[in-house]
Design goal:
The complex is a heterotetramer, with 2 copies of chain A and 2 copies of chain C. Helix content of chain A is 35%, strand content 24%. Chain A has 4 helices and 5 strands, in the order αβααββαββ. The longest helix of chain A has 22 residues. Classes of the chains: A alpha+beta, C alpha/beta. Bound molecules: adenosine-5'-diphosphate (2 copies).
Amino acid sequence: MFTYFQTIKVENYGSKRRLHDRIKQLIEELPADATYMKMHVQGNSETLALIRRVIVACVQHLDLGAALLNDIKLATTEACTNVIKHAYKFNDAMSFDLEIVTSDEVFVVEVFYHDPDFVPANIPVPNLNEIKEGGLGVFIIRNIMDHVDYSTEEDSGRVRLQMVKILKLRD
Amino acid sequence: MFTYFQTIKVENYGSKRRLHDRIKQLIEELPADATYMKMHVQGNSETLALIRRVIVACVQHLDLGAALLNDIKLATTEACTNVIKHAYKFNDAMSFDLEIVTSDEVFVVEVFYHDPDFVPANIPVPNLNEIKEGGLGVFIIRNIMDHVDYSTEEDSGRVRLQMVKILKLRD
Amino acid sequence: MFKIECKVDAEKKIKIFYVDGELDIQSAKTLKSEVMDLIESTGWTYELNMDQVAYLDSSGLGMLVYLKKEITRHNGKLRIVKLNEPVLNVFKLTKLDDFFEIS
Amino acid sequence: MFKIECKVDAEKKIKIFYVDGELDIQSAKTLKSEVMDLIESTGWTYELNMDQVAYLDSSGLGMLVYLKKEITRHNGKLRIVKLNEPVLNVFKLTKLDDFFEIS
Ligand SMILES: Nc1ncnc2c1ncn2[C@@H]1O[C@H](COP(=O)(O)OP(=O)(O)O)[C@@H](O)[C@H]1O
Ligand SMILES: Nc1ncnc2c1ncn2[C@@H]1O[C@H](COP(=O)(O)OP(=O)(O)O)[C@@H](O)[C@H]1O
């Protein structure tokens, strides 16, 4: 029922390092006809449905199929849920930004938010043998996207979470 | 089948001047929880479907109903079609920007593009008794939106088309 | 996703076009050339079934005006049926509901 | 738009919840409180029919883990049926397909 598009995993690409270099290059050399979308939204959980709808719009436009659509919706929602829950502690007076950049080759989602205390390296890796009610969001993101990168700006407390799905590889 | 939401027309508002002052005020005093969306897209006709999909996402999120959805889709597509057709003469190496700002009270769509020769005052008003193949786009926009404003930046040749639909009025 | 299907009834001289999708400048071009390719020299009726068209704009209208003129030039008739409310509203707004034979 | 309907079969001691919509952190809260309100003191089966759920994320999963623990504490059983492929994939990815009774 679902056509899984070939997304490039480490296995198919030699080493993690090489895959990441390739992804960096893809993002830096975006073609002139890439589509950019920026959203500035409130940090409340109603926003999540809007964001998924916008993702649907972008994915349908690229004609990517149900599996990729679901992966990108899922990763993006997990990322934004964490902003609302952990960074903003459900204070919906806070807002955050989302950027979506798409070309024939990559689908990039970036979430920008404020969290001066956030240390990405401290995100725990879940033990899937222990059944718990939480701790699976980042695990899911890392497993379904081809590239995930948290970067923080120390002075401003601004965090950028970049998530990339490769659609097809040039050359 | 379609519920027309009450949108405020001149008739209900005393004078055109007063309505426009009110709209200006509404746009300038956007509430903190307004949602902003910016798109940078290629000037080709395939883009129009993507833009409509994003409009659908925003309208469904506000739960506005089919009539308003159609009006906003229609006005936005007409506006972008004119950019592609008249300003860019189907040269799809050109790109343009779209901004959508929504709150409980207003739905604002702004199209930004490059056209140094454009003189908004020269847009002809169609004679509906003459049946022609064109010339209806701007007429439609002006008839279905509550406020339409073209403004041009002489130095840069940048044009902004602002279209506003009022969703409800504060008092 | 824009699709057109055509059914021909040679006896009654009718071609029915089932249009499916949104009619903007891009799909209007497609529909125009599909219908133009199938216009017979004389006396046929062309029916556009718009049941599956939820969106139409001035580019779509312009194309329909063009088609009606071409079809009339070929002694044919253009009939537009099953208009949805949002689409019908665009015809009414531009006063083209009288020009076309719609139902 | 998120909806839940509940059918009760008192004889068989089964409550079936028909869930309709996307299960994210917002709707998960709704579903959790709806089910919690209807948990009986002992020995009932609770079936979640997910036929109309095309989206589920870790917040939805966390809520299901919580519900399963609560229901077990009340000597009940939780059954999850009619999972769509994208939803089932999330269970598999997190290895929770074994923990839950799904079909
Ligand atoms: N955006 C974020 N800001 C701050 N902390 C975060 C963020 N994302 C994740 N974390 C931390 O990482 C942990 C794991 O996150 P996640 O895998 O999404 O599971 P959960 O949200 O259920 O705890 C969280 O409990 C939190 O401590
Ligand atoms: N964005 C634009 N840039 C330049 N000229 C425009 C633009 N929009 C409208 N016009 C001018 O106004 C006229 C009327 O536009 P419109 O009502 O959309 O009908 P049509 O596009 O079918 O001509 C156009 O023919 C064109 O000359």
